Amino acid sequence: MMWRLYVVVLIGCLGPIDLYAADASDQAPDLTEQVPLPDLNRPADLRNQPNEIAGRIAAGVIETDNVERTATDTMSDTIEEVSADVAIHEQTRRLDADVLSNLQYLSYAHHTYSNEVVGNFIGSGTFAILPKEFEWVVEDNFGQQQLDPTTTITPLNLENINYFSTGPNLLLPLTSLVHAQVSVRFSNVYYQTSDLNNNRGDASVALVRSLSATSNVSLNVAAERVLYQDSAANPDYTTEEAYLRYDAQGARSKLAADLGYDEVSGLSSTGAGALVHLDATRVLSASSHLDLSVGQDISDNSNLLRQLQNLNGLAVTAAYLQRANDPFINRYARLAWQFDQNRTAFNIDVARYEERHLEDFGLNQNRTQADATLRRNLAPALTLSLGATYARSDYLASADNYHEVLATAALDWRFGRHLDVRAEYDRFDQRAEVTTNEYRENRIGLTVGWQVDSLRSPGVLERNGTSFPGL
Nearest-CA neighbor of 443 among 414, 463, 423? Predict the structure, then answer.
């Protein structure tokens, strides 16, 4: 299964190469005319952009004063880093593809840990074999989870997860206002350390009614079968769901709402309940907007990775996920405000997540997180970034509660059309009820990067049938 990891890293590293750059000029670049890279973080952000390749390939070093993240007897280390921050959006009549990544390759100078690849990768592509009739979908999600929530997150308490999925969509126009879609997916989920590797098959059917040019209502039914490679230790199960969806889009607002029922079977305990999803966006002005997401459904550790990356994008960290082989009732609420005007960008994000496991009750938890980021262009070629995060995890059946504060400051100097130097400071402060989950750490990093921001003329922007708006 390691080949998928190598492919992910390769795509992340090659993605930002500017295939459309003009021939190099001997003249010095005019930095006053350069446009900052778009602040893309989630797959939804890419869909609002023209076709483009944006990204930064960088290499550098990180100095840490507590590489093992222990409460006492701290040890410093030097970490060599190669990173690939990528945003790619390509949409034509037949192809709709998006890629986001913030991958890092880390090498520890004192060999404290083995070399590792960490970060997020979100990739999706839909090829319309017969536009608006038959299409093929490929998706891949890569991230990390912690193995033991009672100890600090280090490479020894971390594992990579890769979720690969592919399958067809069959689109059937029934009348001028009614459409049907049948979707089938075959998936493989790979865990680097745990015995949770599994294969999945799911199918869904949707009946969509267009209410107007900007609104739809649909009836959806779906089922997913999870088959673990080690079924003796991890029982297989089936999840089924049925729900109504309504979506509408106006000049300044966008809304999608699901209401239905889902259940899981095949385990010693059963779970069922309301399925609720609400996603809304409101444009407040030309420079700011609000995003709201609220929901409840039955999920599992693998699907939670994909859901969190859709909600939070590249901001997802290993602390969001914990090793588990049973499904759980998943509840979440997220409110985000974004402001971006001229030289200043500001973002506030507050979220709440709840897990109620059907079998392993010791993993039931509530997680609250608040993030704030500020970016300010101090000069045409100089950018200051500040960030702060507060996160708290409360376990309902154990004394493993902890909270963490992260503060970061970065200064980016762009001294050419593509080259830049970035200096960054990070401060971690985690307090817990068990000492094995407490630490404080300071990190100072310096990287040299190659930036690309290639806006290209879009192709035929008619949607290629990638799910009707009601799906």
Answer: 423
Task: Enumerate the domain spans of the chain.
Answer: 2-455
Question: What is 2-455's CATH topology?
Answer: Maltoporin; Chain A (2.40.170)
Q: What is the pLDDT of residues 67-88, one digit of tens each?
A: 999 999 999 999 999 999 999 9
pTM: 0.85
Q: How far apart are CA 347 and CA 386, in angstroms?
A: 11
Amino acid symbol at 35? V
pLDDT tens digits, residue range 236-292?
Answer: 999 999 999 999 999 999 999 999 999 999 888 888 999 999 999 999 999 999 999
Length of the chain measured in residues: 471
Residue 397 DSSP one-character state: S
The answer to whether 415 and 29 have CB atoms below 8 angstroms apart is: no
Cβ(371)–Cβ(383) under 8 Å?
no
In sequence order, the 6+-apart residues with CB closer than 8 A to the CB of 357 are 324, 326, 327, 328, 363, 364
* Residue 28 pLDDT grade (very low, low, confident, very high; cuts 50, 70, 90): very low
Q: What is the dihedral of CA 210, 215, 218, 222, to 10 degrees?
A: 130
Q: Distance (Å, rounded) from C-alpha 366 to C-alpha 329?
A: 12
